[in-house]
Specification:
Elements: H1 2-20, E1 27-33, H2 40-43, H3 53-62, E2 69-74, E3 80-84, H4 101-105, E4 110-111, E5 123-127, H5 130-138
Antiparallel strand pairs: 1-4, 1-5, 2-3
Helix pairs in contact: 1-3
The chain binds iron/sulfur cluster (SF4) (2 copies).
Length: 139
């Protein structure tokens, strides 16, 4: 019985990971500014497809790129907060050349789930409106 539940979670994790690559990209941001290398985003992050400790263990088992992360705690709503083991006390990446694609893309310009930047982050994000696209075509 326990084995069956584990297998169900296991398969569900694979499906969710797979789906996360194909969800429609609903929101497009315009990103300006630059990184101030404060390290906040490496020390406090959310996942859009991992909601429980068990799911996280399965994801780490399936995808080695997740092994650099650990669960730091939960926010006031019970959402898991993750952090990276490879950020230095100065807020720099100690594995910069091999950092995962998600780190290279941060802050992502296309997101299905709206997010927000850390306070004091050097980047600014602005949601592109339909008018922005029309104005761009006029230039
Ligand atoms: S929070 Fe912003 S400024 Fe700080 S390290 Fe991350 S991207 Fe750079
Ligand atoms: S791999 Fe580097 S850039 Fe990515 S979260 Fe860890 S310390 Fe930050």
């Amino acid at each position: 019985m326990v084995y069956n539940i584990f297998m169900f979670d296991f398969i569900l994790s694979i499906i969710n990971e797979f789906r996360s690559y194909f969800v429609p990209e609903k929101i497009i941001y315009e990103v300006t500014g630059e990184c101030k290398k404060c390290g906040k985003c490496c020390n406090y992050m959310y996942s859009v497809d991992t909601y429980t400790e068990k799911e996280f263990k399965i994801m780490q088992f399936l995808f080695p790129k997740y092994r650099r992360f650990y669960i730091k705690g939960k926010d006031e709503n019970g959402n898991l907060i993750f952090a990276c083991k490879l950020v230095t006390p100065e807020g720099l990446c100690s594995d910069y050349e091999n950092r995962p694609q998600m780190c290279k893309n941060y802050p992502a310009k296309k997101l299905y789930f709206p997010g927000k930047l850390h306070e004091g982050c050097g980047y600014n994000v602005k949601i592109k409106t339909f008018k922005d696209y029309l104005d761009k075509d006029k230039k």
